[in-house]
């Protein structure tokens, strides 16, 4: 049986800051923090299944670094898109230049400068990927942004199932 409680925002942020994987419920976080039974159940009673995570040479993946609370804090599609790219850059700094190969039929998607993206098409609206020296075109629809995330994940060594999970974060 599930009960609802109201908590203050600062308490919620504290609980959310202890998230260990995307999709982890507040109840499982509290169970862990309070030393109670570790069975991880969703509100409907079904077990939470962690996404498959490929072993990476550097040992870190986006699934290890990004929490659902962090993602939920991004209020727009563009903000979530940039946040996911920033986390991928953080986890795969050495491999990230591979994204420079990703382009559309008529425009370049990634660059090391905003001017280069602006020169590759009209209305590109380039934005810098936070905490990186890479820029990305943001004037695409959500479907195209998802496709771009899928391509980035594949370039960085994720398998198709993992790439689809990353794409679906958007």
UniProtKB/TrEMBL annotation:
Gene Ontology cellular component annotations, sorted alphabetically: cytoplasm
Segments forming domain Replication modulator SeqA C-terminal DNA-binding: 65-168
Annotated protein name in UniProt: Negative modulator of initiation of replication
Residue span(s) of domain Negative modulator of initiation of replication SeqA N-terminal: 3-36
Species, as recorded: Pseudidiomarina halophila
GO molecular function, one term: DNA binding
Cellular compartments annotated: Cytoplasm
GO BP annotations listed: negative regulation of DNA-templated DNA replication initiation; regulation of DNA-templated transcription
Function: Negative regulator of replication initiation, which contributes to regulation of DNA replication and ensures that replication initiation occurs exactly once per chromosome per cell cycle. Binds to pairs of hemimethylated GATC sequences in the oriC region, thus preventing assembly of replication proteins and re-initiation at newly replicated origins. Repression is relieved when the region becomes fully methylated.
Family assignment from sequence similarity: Belongs to the SeqA family.
Keywords from the UniProt entry: Cytoplasm, DNA replication inhibitor, DNA-binding
InterPro entries referenced in this protein's UniProt entry, alphabetically: Arc_rbn_hlx_hlx, Ribbon_hlx_hlx, SeqA, SeqA_DNA-bd_C, SeqA_DNA-bd_C_sf, SeqA_N
């Amino acid at each position: 049986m599930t009960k609802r409680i109201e908590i203050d925002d600062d308490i919620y942020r504290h609980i959310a800051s202890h998230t260990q994987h995307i999709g982890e419920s507040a109840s499982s976080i509290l169970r862990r923090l309070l030393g109670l039974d570790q069975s991880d159940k969703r509100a409907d009673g079904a077990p939470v299944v962690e996404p498959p995570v490929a072993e990476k040479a550097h040992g870190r993946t986006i699934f290890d670094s990004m929490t659902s609370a962090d993602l939920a804090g991004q209020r727009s599609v563009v903000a979530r898109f940039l946040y996911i790219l920033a986390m991928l850059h953080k986890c795969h700094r050495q491999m990230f230049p591979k994204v420079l190969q990703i382009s559309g039929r008529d425009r370049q998607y990634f660059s090391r400068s905003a001017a280069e993206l602006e020169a590759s098409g009209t209305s590109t609206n380039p934005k810098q990927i936070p905490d990186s020296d890479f820029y990305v075109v943001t004037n695409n629809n959500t479907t195209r942004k998802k496709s771009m995330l899928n391509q980035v994940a594949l370039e960085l060594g994720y398998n198709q199932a993992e790439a689809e999970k990353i794409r679906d974060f958007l």
